[in-house]
Amino acid sequence: PARYRLIPLDLFEGDAVYRHRAPSRDLADINFIYKTPQEESYRTEKNIISSKISNVTFEKSLMVHASFLHPGKEHLHFIAAAPNAIRGIPVYGSVWIHGDHSKHALSLLFKNRYGKEVRVFVTYISFKGWRRIRFTIPNALLSGRENLKKNIQFTGILIESSPKTQASAFSIMMDNLILITDSKERMYPGNEIDDSWP
């Protein structure tokens, strides 16, 4: 339906800039590499995104290579240098992840309309290869609908170490992080009245 919009939070073509906070300075890196999923469903998604957004090459993905020396007690935080403002009500999201079976937890970080940070859990990296992961939106991110002058913001990525693993390095890739939003938020009581001035 026309009320729903596809919002690309990051297609990981290297346009966005992230700063990282890592537990180990010796092994923590983030790069954009020329490698993307080869699945048919990825090509279908790519065509849908291309119909909405022009000049996207879909050539790269985000590569994260880091280490946790104290599993279960450390995390890796990637902060978006320029937070991405989101219009509308998020309904659900999806992202492609290339896992290495490291079992670490991956979440996305947002700020709701009150400016409060909200952590959105995506998945445990308990698989190998590419997977498209669909994630749900917690109510904490949807609060503040009455504050329509403020937008929700995507602020970064969080990887939390699993206590079920040994101290070691890990590598994952991410591609096509998108949200589906509902523009119905503008339908607040009284919105049906035409208040425009001639």
List the SSEs and their pairings.
Blueprint: E1 4-10, E2 18-21, E3 28-33, H1 40-52, E4 61-68, E5 75-86, E6 89-100, E7 105-111, E8 117-124, E9 128-136, H2 139-142, E10 152-160, E11 168-182
Antiparallel strand pairs: 1-11, 2-5, 3-4, 4-11, 5-10, 6-9, 6-11, 7-8, 7-10
Q: How many alpha or pi helices?
A: 2
CATH topology category name:
Jelly Rolls
Write out the CATH superfamily name: Galactose-binding domain-like
Regarding CATH, which class?
Mainly Beta
CATH architecture: Sandwich
In total, the number of strands is 11
Rg to the nearest angstrom?
A: 18 Å
| SSE series | EEEHEEEEEEHEE
Low-confidence stretches: 186-198
Helix content estimate: under 10%
Shape: globular
Q: Which range does the strand content fall in?
A: over 45%
Average pLDDT, to the nearest integer?
Answer: 87
Q: By helix and strand content, what is the structural category? A: mainly beta
Straight-line distance between termini: 31 Å
Number of domains: 1
Main β sheet profile:
6 strands, antiparallel
Explain this structure to me?
- This protein is mainly beta.
- It has two helices and eleven strands.
- It has helices spanning 40-52, 139-142, and strands at 4-10, 18-21, 28-33, 61-68, 75-86, 89-100, 105-111, 117-124, 128-136, 152-160, 168-182.
- The strands form two sheets. Strands 1, 3, 4, 6, 9 and 11 form a six-stranded antiparallel beta sheet that branches. A five-stranded antiparallel beta sheet has the order 2-5-10-7-8, with no helix packed on it.
- Residues 186-198 have low confidence and may be disordered.
